[in-house]
Write a structure and sequence with these properties.
The chain is built from eleven helices and eight strands. By secondary structure, the protein is α+β, with helices and mostly antiparallel strands. The protein folds into two domains: 10-159, Jelly Rolls (Sandwich), CATH 2.60.120; 167-282, Homeodomain-like (Arc Repressor Mutant, subunit A). 45% of the residues lie in helices and 16% in strands. The protein has helices spanning 10-16, 96-101, 117-135, 141-159, 171-184, 201-207, 212-223, 227-245, 250-256, 262-273, 277-282; strands at 18-23, 39-45, 48-52, 55-59, 62-67, 73-78, 83-89, 112-114. It starts with 9 loop residues before the first helix and ends with a helix.
Length: 283
Amino acid sequence: MINEIPGVNMADLRLKGFRVHALQASQELPLRRGRRDFYKMGLVNGDMTVQYGGELLELKGTVLFFVNPKVPHSVVSRVNRTSGYACLFTEAFMNSRELHDSPLFRAGDNPVIPLDSAQSVFMDSIFRKMLKVYQEDYPYKSDLIRNCISVVLHEALQIQPPRQSAAFQSGAGRVAHMFLDLLERQFPIERPNDPLRMRNPQQFAERLSLHVNYLNRAVKSVTGQPTSVHIAARIAAEAKALLHHTDWSVADIAYALGFEYPAYFNNFFKRLTGTTPNAFRKV
């Protein structure tokens, strides 16, 4: 089920919980068709198009790029001169609360932070340090790399403060945040026999101990979209990931996403994407 990352020893990565490597012009980025074992952050220099959470993001110049493992992602196109560094790590390697609370990995936020020349030089020095330590036999390399990751995360937040922080100060903002967080925590779907539990606004409202009308008003006022639209879009994004990254049958995917019959899933998927699951899988 989990796709291998070109040029990366997956067994070693799972054992240590982290890996740092340089991105060479001749290699594919480790984001390509990534299934969601590891958090990833990279310092990327070049031009490429990345599909992240159902959106196409253009990476130009020098940028920091953060990947939440629960958000479907892949490289769509790139140029040969792309270079930089990538750091992959498990949730267990870092403080899970630091990751869950970080706006950098929040689903729905832009994971790309453009850097100016001074910021690029500083971030390059941090990633070079991580790579050097990773390649050495320093007995405390895990602690040092963990500290470097924290430095990158905090420097990134200084460069680009979270856009939604002001919204969370209001009651509606907090409710919308709780809803989006609860929605995202249902993913990724790892087993067909463990189907999605919450698929409509009423179920989320009950879980949050809120009236469904209040939940809908809060989410709509903060995000501009109804609760049901967020749910449907996230289920569709997960469906795309499962179709592309697993060999499950369409019936298994339908059941895993909470649809009673495959025909219901087919109709839902076609309504949101304009194509059928089988046709999408063949693309």
